[in-house]
Amino acid sequence: MNRPTAHTTTRETGPPASETYRQTVQRLSSAQKSAARGAPAYSIYVNRRVGRYLAAGAYRLGLTPNMVTAVSAVFTFAGIALLAVGQPSWVLGISVWLLLALGYAFDSADGQVARLRGGGSASGEWLDHVVDSVKISTLHLAVLVTAFTHFSLSSPVWLLVPIGFTVVAAVSFFAMILNDLLKAKHGSGAAPTGHSTVWRALLGAPTDYGLLCFAFVLLGAPWLFFLVYALLFVANLGYLVLALIKWFRDMNALGSVPARSAAEDS
């Protein structure tokens, strides 16, 4: 999701004339960022690799990172719209999954295109995060719409599941962004990165957006989909509670915040 923002004086607009597609992929692979510790398995082992191939192709076509972000948004929001208005079926579920998965892969590709071109920009990172913030909320609201319209739920109380998932997703995203901002502001740098072990990646699987996307295949059996979706909600809620405790301790370790000015209080 994140696009690099390092300043550079040289920007590439396309590959060297003698560079093949395979060489572009290899060059991108060698410049790949380390995965964040605890990053989920699908994001590391599937989505990043697919995004690499898409990024190499987009780069060779001369697409900018913002163009790739736009492509990601088209696939993602097409899938969300289809989920909200379509009649639940196996065909609908597979279509929603493919659209969301492609959107996620292009979401990974935009930052990789930026690296190939010599670095990203603040506006590009801003656009990427704005698209992500809209995506994570509207996806669960689309589930709410289709559950209310098409599912035979035993009680309206079950509609609280997609509502709660919307809150969990929004809070998780905002808290992670705020973590990085506050750590940078108080001199501790960005969130720690490093080699994500297989064990850490598997532990984070319930929070993996790729797994959530795949769950929509089950729309052909609405009761089974909603059961899996509810279990993912519970897992994400539990993960968020534990993460918030840890993140609060991390923020507390940064020390005191300088006194705010009168203008900031107004």
Automatic annotation (TrEMBL):
Record region (Disordered): 1-21
GO BP terms in the entry: phospholipid biosynthetic process
Family statement drawn from the similarity comment of this UniProt entry: Belongs to the CDP-alcohol phosphatidyltransferase class-I family.
PROSITE patterns reported in the protein's UniProt record: CDP_ALCOHOL_P_TRANSF (PS00379)
The keyword Cell membrane belongs to this UniProt entry's keyword annotation: no
GO molecular function: phosphotransferase activity, for other substituted phosphate groups
Transmembrane segments: 58-84, 90-109, 157-178, 198-217, 223-245
Protein species of origin: Cryobacterium psychrophilum
Record's compositionally biased regions (Polar residues): 1-12
Key words, A-Z: Membrane, Transferase, Transmembrane, Transmembrane helix
One Gene Ontology term, aspect cellular component: membrane
Protein name: CDP-alcohol phosphatidyltransferase
